[in-house]
Amino acid sequence: MSAITRNVVVRRWGTPQATEGSVNEAREWEEQGHRVNEKWVYHAPRHEPARPRARIFYWLRYDFVASYVVDADGRTVRDDPRPLVAGIADRLFVPATRNAGAR
User: Fold this and answer.
1) Which of 33, 56, 73, 102 has the highest CB neighbour number within 10 Å of its CB?
2) Sign of the C-alpha dihedral, residues 21, 85, 67, 72?
3) Cβ neighbours of residue 6 under 8 Å, at least 6 residues apart?
4) Is residue 21 part of a domain?
5) How confident is the model at residue 1 (pLDDT cuts 50, 70, 90)?
6) What is the pTM of this model?
7) Are 89 and 76 contacting, i.e. CB atoms less than 8 angstroms apart?
8) Which residues pair with 75 in a beta bridge?
9) Residue of 50, 59, 49, 53 whose CA lies nearest to 9
């Protein structure tokens, strides 16, 4: 299964509608029992089979910490997003051709 990386999350869900903290921010806090320095929130995330109210990703620097969904009834439940990102490559990199067009 695919690893949960920042690039994979953005390729699957797009950019988050709300964020707290930053990869470069030294401030850490504890939320849902996890030590984090960044939180990404997707409101009514698209392409979700269960149609949750929100999906939340927690990060510590570049490392994925945990993901939670907020169910339709408002309950927050830990969730494993790996099945939803299966087959999504971390990034698509196409190197530029050196001296393209030069003869």
Assistant:
1) 56
2) positive
3) 23, 59, 62, 64
4) yes
5) very low
6) 0.83
7) no
8) none
9) 59
Tell me if residue 2 falls in helix, strand or coil.
Answer: coil
pLDDT of 74 higher than 90: yes
Tokens of 66: 């945990």
| Amino acid identity at 68 | Y
Q: What is the DSSP string of 66-103?
A: EEEEE-TTS-EEEE--HHHHTT--S----PPPTTTT--
**What CA–CA distance (Å, rounded) separates 6 from 87?**
15
Domain of 60, in residue numbers = 6-85
The answer to the question of residue 94 being in a domain is: no
What's the rounded mean pLDDT across residues 9-27?
A: 92
Indicate if the pLDDT at residue 79 is higher than 50: yes
Residue 1 forms part of a structural domain: no
SS3 34: strand
